[in-house]
Structures are given as C-alpha cells and as structure tokens.
Amino acid sequence: MQEHRIAQELKLQGHGIPNLIDILAGGKEAIDNVEYHYVVMPFHKGTTLSSYIRQSEYDNDFIRKVLGTLTSVTEALLALGIAHRDVKSENIMIDDEGNLVLMDLGVLKLIATESISDDAHREFVGTLRYAPPEFITRKEADNLEGWRSITLYQIGGVLHDLVVKEELFKDSYPYPNLVVSILEDAPPVSNSLVDFELVQLTRDLLTKDWKKRLASCPVDRLMRLAVAGAKNLPSIDQYVEDIRKMSQGHRMKIEEAEQHRRTRYERNRNSGALSMRFQTLVNGCFEFGKGLGLYGHYEISKPTTDEVTEVNGTFTKAVSYIVTIQGKQAQGFLNHLMILVKVTCDEQSSGSISMLGIFPGAMFKYNEADPKKKFSALSKELLKVHQAVRKSNGSIEIRLDTIFEGTISLDDQFRDKIREQWLKLLKLALEKVADKVTLTLDRALRHQKGEIRTYVPVRVEEPIVIRPESHD
C-alpha cells in the first residue's frame, strides 16, 4: 500500500501548481535489509491553518484569500484528473511570509481509475470529520463532477473553521454520533463580523446532497467571492445595515442536539417545523417594512398551496400565499401591491424564497376573501400582460423569481439579508409607479388651486408586474 501511495505522489513531481506542496523525489531504499519508502518535499516553516485559527485574529480578506487559494489549487488538480481527498485546516500551512500551502498528498485519487480503496471492502480514506455524506458511505460518483463536489464540501469545512473559529462538528462524539451528524445535521454557521456572502457560501458548500451542492456552488461563485470586497449597499437598504450593526454579536441559538436516525414520521415533522420557522422569518420582512413606515398595512393570506413531497428519501415542504401591501400615495403607492410568495424547505435545511409583485389593473377585485380565488384572479391579470402561461389542461402557470436559494440559517445576519431582498423588491415596485403617483398628486394640487375643475386620479388600467432583480 505504501508503494502505491508513493507512486501516486510521484506523479505530481514538478507539477508547477502554485500553493501546492512540491514533490522533489521519492522511491524506496533498503537499510539493514529493511525496505523503506520515502517522499522528499521542501520544508515550510510556519504553522498549520488550524493552529492559526486558534491563535490569531484575521479579517474577511484573509478568509477570501484562503478560499481563493484552495479553489485554485484543487481546480488545478482536478484539471489533471486528480482529487486531493483530504482538504482540511490541518493540511494547510501558512509560512512566515503569509503564503498558503496545501499539504499531504498521501490519499490522492486518480479520477475514474480504480485505487486500493476501491476494492471490495470500499474502505474510507481521508478525514471523517471533513468528509461529505456520499464520501463516508462510499457512494461518491467517480467522475470529475463527483470529486469536485466532494472537494467543495471540504473547502466548506475549512471555511466553517474560519468563520465559526472551531472545528466542524466539534461536539459530535463518539464516532457513531459524528457519523449521524455528517449524514443528517446541518452545522450552524454564524458570525456577524464575517460578510454574509462568505457565511452563506459556507452553508451552501456543506449541503448534504452532492448534486445540490454542485449546483449552488459553481466554481465561478467561489472565485468571485475570493476577489470581491464588501459591497456598498443601496441607500434604501441602509435601514437594514443600521439594524445589523446594532444587533452584532446577538445570534439566535440553534440547538445542536446529538441525533439518531429519524423515522419517516419524525423527519416529516422536523421538515414541517423548520419550514414553519423559515416562513415566520420570511413573513417578518413585511412587519419590518411596516415598522419602518414604508407602508401602512399588510395582509398575509391563507396558503394557496401547502404540500409535502418526498424525493429520493428527502422531505420538502412548499407553501404559497399572497401578501397584500396597502400604502398611501404619500408613501409612493397608487393602489394595493400584491406579492405572490412561495417558500420551500427540506429536512436538510435547504430552502428557497420566490416572489413576484403586481399592481393589479383597475378592474381587479382585490378584496376577495378566498385566497385560491384571489390567486386565480391574479393569474388572469398576469395573463393579460403575458407574464403567465395557460397550459393545455386549462391551468395557469406562473413563474416566480427566486430571491434566495441555498442553506437556511435562522440567525440575525441571515434574517437581515432576507429583509434586504424584500426592501429591494419594494423599491423596484414603487419605482414602477412613481411617475403615475406624481401625476396624480399634481392633478390634486392643480384642482385645489382651481386650475382644473375636475380631479381624476391616474388609474392603473393594465396590471404592472415587478420581478425581483437577480439575488446576490
């Protein structure tokens, strides 16, 4: 086995990949009739990243540097058809000049090539704590995308250590409980001093489902965040930023209990409970806007759809409903703003929020009490302006726009980001009708001055649709 390992490492001799430990030489040597295998690598004076995290203070730029370095190195390896398989904080050195070096090439894997660990026993190799579910169960896809997804998870484990300042699943012991945590529990990732985009990326990288992980964390997302600094928020979002500053250091405590395998009933129930908390967080955005005085009243309908589905053994709950926002002309409203909302959440803490805004036309009866009838009426409004499609069976299909998709957290920073997305949508809606509101108020003023005899407010004849901009 040692000979096979040495042969694997020697294939990277002279690799030329920056920030990856060099292989200078290797082979075997007999000393006193005992055969020894060896690899020669350069000595790097410094400390491991795991020690650095415990002993040092660092900022967002350092986290971005680690993210960019690991992404570049592992992508270069994947381009050679090689998976590292053991990316973790203990295997990253920081030398005296501040350079990062990815170490330990002892469990390299040639992609789509059978290795010793692929025999009938399919034994796990690497570090269990930083391995994704599909790897510890040895159900990984032995192709480029499969190993890229495993590598992304391990990068997420390193980011977790940097963001939370403790190792992944540190309280999960003994061994059986650690396995349960890896397979079933979403690790809490929160730190109000770290940029939200980095925190959310970390959550998404640690997604249990490898295909979802791959879809939500394309390499260009990692590289974009690695080089980007903190963004300047739009002026309307300053409210959110002020609240965020006041609430720094306060987190919602998420109970991280040691769990055993759940029954179908328990998993379904847990999915519903998490969905309810997630929906409450989303609905809190509308109360937040009212509290800021941005509108006078809002009303949340009963669900138009409320269903639980099971796909590949994972329960997902989806709830759709309508929110009616009522504001005055002085607040920029011409008539009621209707928001179609869909919230999804699965038992593995993955979820999404989709929305679509509409100022209905003048003939729309918005006081319909039955939410399904109201939804049907809104669907017809959207058909008028080609924002919905009538299917062959007579039903109407409406495409909502996603404002969030990824791993859910319930802390203050996550809540504020969702509020920010809601305020962004509200701003877009008010901009859509700003000219009409101004014209209405001008007519009212001219009527009061006696310049015109009759005051006729501007009406929205055709519905006005507001689609959210792509979320950050």
Largest sheet, if any?
7 strands, antiparallel
Report how far apart the termini are.
Answer: 47 Å
Number of strands: 16
The structural domain count equals 2
Radius of gyration: 27 Å
In terms of structural class, how would the helical and strand content be classed? Answer: alpha+beta
User: What general outline do the C-alpha atoms trace?
Assistant: elongated
Strand content: 15-25%
The helix-strand sequence is: HEEEHHEEEEHHHHHHHHEEEEEHEEEHE
Question: Helical region count?
Answer: 13
Helix content: 25-40%
Chain-averaged pLDDT: 85
Question: Can you describe what's shown?
Answer:
This protein is an alpha+beta fold and 472 residues long. It has two domains: 191 residues, Transferase(Phosphotransferase), domain 1 (Orthogonal Bundle); 203 residues, no CATH class. It has 13 helices and 16 strands. The longest helix has 38 residues.
